[in-house]
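Supplementary Note 2. Why include the ligand at all?

Several targets in our set were suspected to adopt different conformations when bound, so apo predictions alone were not considered sufficient. For every target with a known small-molecule partner we therefore ran a joint prediction. The input for nicotinamide-adenine-dinucleotide is given below.
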Amino acid sequence: MIITGAGSGLGQATAERLAAEGANLVLVDMNAEGLEATKKLVTTAAPEARVELITADVTRPEDVENYVQATVKTFGSIDGFFGIRINAIAPGAIMTAMVENSLKQMDPDNWEAAGEQFVSVNPMKRFGKPEEVAGLVSFLLSEDAGFINGTVVPIGGGQHAMY
Ligand SMILES: NC(=O)c1ccc[n+]([C@@H]2O[C@H](COP(=O)([O-])OP(=O)(O)OC[C@H]3O[C@@H](n4cnc5c(N)ncnc54)[C@H](O)[C@@H]3O)[C@@H](O)[C@H]2O)c1
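The joint prediction is reproduced in token form.
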């Protein structure tokens, strides 16, 4: 499987989860250090997993072509690449480096309090965890989700229902 943005946050947690469930992974990110950190976590969670790292910018078509070709070369095929189910997830506020940095920009000295205020309007009164998003990705890839197709699944503690 190919996971883009795998050097941090949601992609990193998803890599750990899918490797623990037996997936072989190609991890793509423009941040090589982040990829190395993810590889460490993945090989701790799943010592048997095959993990390839590819530094690439997903906005560049030639980079995308390159990591898809490299994956096919290394693993022979890509699971699900020509599959029939395409689903998306729509995360609400999940606590990752991206969200932490945004809060720090809003209020550098008091970002944790700014975060608490931010989630005070969420029915669950908290940020989501990257592991919870990874769990949803795992479910959507599983046979239990075999009839879920062409949909967008929100994961945001119910905040989307508040608007
Ligand atoms: N965390 C949230 O609350 C949240 C909510 C909604 C949507 N999202 C989206 O989910 C995705 C992941 O978010 P996250 O919170 O894990 O962020 P993050 O900053 O923790 O991780 C994003 C990773 O993507 C990599 N990246 C960025 N641009 C890239 C590019 N052009 N090519 C390759 N790699 C690139 C970064 O280097 C980083 O490792 C983002 O698209 C974000 O907008 C996040």
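Residues 61-75 form the longest helix (15 residues). Strands lie at 2-4, 25-29, 51-55, 88-91, 152-155. Comparable summaries for the other entries are listed in the accompanying table.
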